Amino acid sequence: MNSRQRRGVILILLSVLCALGAFAGVLSVISDVESKVGPETTAYELAADVQPYEELSESQFKKVEIPERWIPETAVTDLRGIDGKIAVTPLRKGSLLQSDMVVDRPALKKGEQEIAIMIDAATGVAGKIRPGATVNIYATFDRETGGTRPQSKVIVTGAKVIDVGRLTPLDPDQDERRRGTTEAVPITFGLGTLDAQRVAYAESFASHVRLALVAPGGGSVPPADRSYTLDGDKGGNG
Questions:
Q1: Domain spans in the chain, listed from the N-terminal domain onward
Q2: How far is Cα 212 from Cα 156, in angstroms, rounded to an integer?
Q3: Over residues 149-160, mean pLDDT
Q4: Is 29 helix (H, G, I), strand (E, B) or coil?
Q5: Residue 196 backbone phi and psi in degrees, to 5
Q6: How does residue 77 score in pLDDT terms, banded at 50, 70 and 90?
């Protein structure tokens, strides 16, 4: 083999080594990408905005594929069972659906019934009452409907909120008791028969009905403290 042939063989070997090196580099890049991305899994995004307390359905979400290593542990990967649940906060279009964004709609217990009344949005709800919340229900009566003196009464303690409706504009001229109120929210409670009657009576005859949000397990009010009149107030600073 002469010198020219030897040079040719060396060039061929060098070419093969370079090709092997380039191939190894490509494999290394692919392996690095796969290690960073990994296998993908199914998740779901909001296809449109969802309001708080709104009932959810599968049609409100779209399927997306996300690398497993990047998906939060709370991400919902299966929409089965989402129907009938409600949003606990405003859900924005494009947000990834996570399990802590939704809750089961509160259910009635044995002996309870649903009753809904309109509550002044400003003084009765203030955006903090949600399904599943526990509230005390207060009613204030004027002289004509409450006797000789205006008074405030706790008509129901520990009432369970089943549903919170949409903000509804009111026509104050249709109800003298609501004069000055421009918006109200329908609130549905799960109550026993007697408490449902108390709420129905207050909604019909009280000048105002208000809700007081109470802590879990709270709501108890001693019988002596359930009625209040200004004349009978022995407390205060005076």
A1: 40-103, 113-228
A2: 11
A3: 88
A4: helix
A5: -65, -40
A6: confident
Widest CA span of the chain, in angstroms? 128
SS3 49: coil
The verdict on pTM exceeding 0.70 is no
How far is the C-alpha of 120 from the C-alpha of 122, rounded, in Å?
6
224 has a pLDDT exceeding 70: yes
| Token couple for 231 | 């004349």
CATH label, 40-103, candidates 3.50.50.60, 1.10.760.10, 3.90.1210.10, 3.40.50.300: 3.90.1210.10
3-state secondary structure 84-147: CCEECCCECCCCECEHHHEECCCCCCCCCEEEEEEEEHHHHHCCCCCCCCEEEEEEEECHHHHC
C-beta of residue 40 within 8 angstroms of C-beta of residue 74: no
- pLDDT (average), residues 61-86: 83
C-alpha 200/C-alpha 206 separation (Å) is 10
Give the span between the Cα atoms of 198 and 157, in whole angstroms.
Answer: 11
Q: How far, in Å, CA of 94 to CA of 49, rounded? A: 8
Has residue 65 got a pLDDT over 70? yes
- Distance CA(186)–CA(117), nearest Å, equals 5
